[in-house]
Amino acid sequence: MKLRLFVIIISVCDLRSALMAQTDTTLKKLLLTNYTAYKGHAVDSLIKALPTNYSKMTILSNHAGYGNLLCVFYANGVNVGITVRKFKYFNPHLDFTKPLKGQWDANMSLFKKEAIAYAIVYQGPTCYAGCENDPKSQWERKIKH
User: Which of 11, 49, 82, 122 would be a feasible disulfide site paired with 70, CB 3.0-4.6 Å?
Assistant: First the structure.
């Protein structure tokens, strides 16, 4: 019984280590990308350059009812936030007369045509790339000055 428990614990630790190594590799790959080079280019062009092992991709809101942020989620809290400011194809406003869930994601192909304003890479609350555009970082810089 003790041996079986020991084997289970070791297996879980190995799995966690493998997941952490994958995340480290993903974060390293993400940090090799020059995100400012994609400014003004279609969101889809950046998505094609990102690692494909993401777990979820969804459109979120920086402002209530205004979908201007595409988040690409990876393991262990690693994510890339791609922000659009001006829209030609995608309607960023929620239609409150329709069911809200999935409303923006249903039109993701239109969002992917929009021009990128900026992109930010995070792992949890820590910003790794594009931090000059991070609202939290901007707020903290204003307080320090």
Answer: 82
* Backbone φ/ψ region at 110: left (φ over 0), alpha (ψ -120 to 50), beta: alpha
Q: What does the alpha-carbon distance between residue 75 and residue 54 come to, in Å, rounded to a whole number?
A: 7
Residues 6+ apart with CB under 8 A from 108: 57, 59, 70
Answer yes or no: pTM beyond 0.90. Answer: no
**Token digits of residue 66:** 């205004």
87: left (phi over 0), alpha (psi -120 to 50) or beta: beta
**Cα 43 to Cα 21: distance, rounded to the nearest angstrom:** 28
Mean pLDDT of 84-113: 90
